[in-house]
Write a structure and sequence with these properties.
By secondary structure, the chain is of the alpha+beta class. Among the domains are: about 60-160, Alpha-Beta Plaits, CATH 3.30.70.1400; about 300-388, Aminomethyltransferase beta-barrel domains (Elongation Factor Tu (Ef-tu), domain 3, Beta Barrel). It has nine helices and 19 strands. The strands form four sheets. It has a six-stranded mixed sheet with strand order 10-11-12-9-3-13. A six-stranded antiparallel beta barrel has the order 14-17-16-15-18-19. The protein has a five-stranded antiparallel sheet with strand order 5-6-7-4-8. A hairpin with a 5-residue loop joins strand 15 (about 320-325) and strand 16 (about 330-340). The two termini are about 35 Å apart. Mean pLDDT is about 95; it is low at about 1-5.
Length: about 400
């Protein structure tokens, strides 16, 4: 089972026994018993992912299928119906999503704040048109799915895929490893999903990545998850990677962690993810909080998420105050730490828009001391997604 127990104990993914067998250090994360690191250590796990391939258990995230309730529709009409439904909750352009295409988007509150970020994928098969595959964050999945059912229950049915695990393989060697096990998957284009069969199991393979590297997310039935993970780990280029390196990798890539860099108070414009707002949606509106978001697109937000490079070697952690050079409070760090590939501390945070330009000098208050820093372009390490 992907999770267990309703008595307050931590839930466990289908790979829990594998993590423990690999001597992982386990911690609580989003209500799950998850590996934070393995004997290799966070630094080497990070470097291994950048150089070869790292295997991540992301089965704690929420997978679900959203299907139109309207029957007897042609493939395009069916997609139009389900896309129109989900577009009442997100600002993305879902109607034009191609068969087999995946899109990053956000669930919005009526005030235009980000309730969660998620992946929305349109299946490639004609028989599955009128359906969308959703992947949401672990800590928010119950709230997300409840919201979707409340808002869309009359026109669409949500089926949680609790019988499926999610395994990510990231790094420059990932495509070769995946292709050796799942013929054809290594040739997929970025942000596409394709179905495959592996040892009798139905897989959904998406090419994308939360590390900035080329990579794959593989949805696999729980009863086949450990066997697939072991098959990948048998490859000499693959090491298991925990939450610690996952966080440093995504921070270097300038990618948001929900609940930290994105919250219900921040809009996608202030969060510097305005790319998630489709062109047609900018013209038509029709999504929650559209008045605020469209105004911010036109006039600029009051605050903006930026990259920050502390000078020196001391990292600034989440919650550190950001000041102008004359000591005025202008923002707060939302993610921060040491960037092993960057070779220096890196951070992200929100600053008043007047201070958001790259190169702007700042001060970070770390342990009561004002340390110099500068607004920096993101990502800190170049993205290496496969464009085909």
């Amino acid at each position: 089972m992907a999770s267990e127990n309703t008595s307050g104990e931590l839930k466990k993914t289908a790979l829990n026994a594998l993590h423990r067998g690999l001597d992982a250090k386990m911690v609580e994360f989003a209500g799950y018993d998850m590996p934070v690191q393995y004997p290799l250590g966070v630094l080497k796990e990070h470097q291994h992912t950048r150089e070869k391939a790292g295997l991540f258990d992301v089965s704690h995230m929420g997978q679900a299928f959203l299907t139109t309730r309207e029957a007897a529709l042609g493939a395009e009409d069916a997609h139009e119906k389900i896309a129109a439904a989900i577009e009442t909750l997100v600002p993305g352009e879902i109607r034009k999503l191609r068969k087999g295409g995946a899109r990053y988007s956000v669930l919005l509150s009526d005030q235009g704040g980000v309730l969660d970020d998620l992946m929305i994928t349109r299946p490639i098969e004609d028989a599955q048109q009128g359906m969308l595959f959703l992947v949401v964050n672990a800590a928010m999945k119950d709230a997300d799915f409840a919201l979707i059912e409340e808002k869309l229950g009359g026109v669409a049915a949500l089926k949680r895929a609790e019988d499926r695990s999610l395994i990510a393989l990231q790094g420059p060697a990932a495509a070769g490893v995946v292709e050796g096990l799942i013929y054809g998957a290594g040739e997929q284009k970025f942000m596409t999903m394709r179905p495959y069969e592996w040892n009798g199991a139905d897989l959904f393979v998406t090419r994308g990545g939360y590390t900035g590297e080329d990579g794959f997310e593989i949805s696999v039935p729980n009863d086949k998850a450990e066997a697939l993970a072991k098959a990948m780990l048998d490859h000499p280029d693959v090491e298991p990677i925990g939450l610690g390196a996952r966080d440093s990798l995504r921070l270097e890539a300038g990618l948001c962690l929900y609940g930290h860099d994105l919250t219900p108070e921040t809009s996608p414009v202030a969060g510097n993810i305005a790319f998630a707002i489709g062109k047609r949606r900018r013209e038509e509106g029709g999504f929650p909080g559209a008045a605020r978001i469209l105004k911010e697109l036109a006039d600029g937000p009051q605050t903006l998420r930026v990259g920050i490079k502390p000078e020196g070697r001391a990292p600034a952690r989440e919650g550190a105050e950001i000041q102008s050079v004359d000591g005025a409070n202008i923002g707060v760090v939302t993610s921060g730490g040491f960037g092993p590939s960057f070779g220096a501390p890196v951070a992200m945070g929100y600053v008043d828009a007047a201070f958001a330009e790259a190169g702007t000098p700042l001060q970070l208050i770390v342990r009561g001391r004002a340390l110099p820093a500068v607004v920096a372009d993101m990502p800190f390490t170049p993205h290496r997604y496969f464009r085909g």
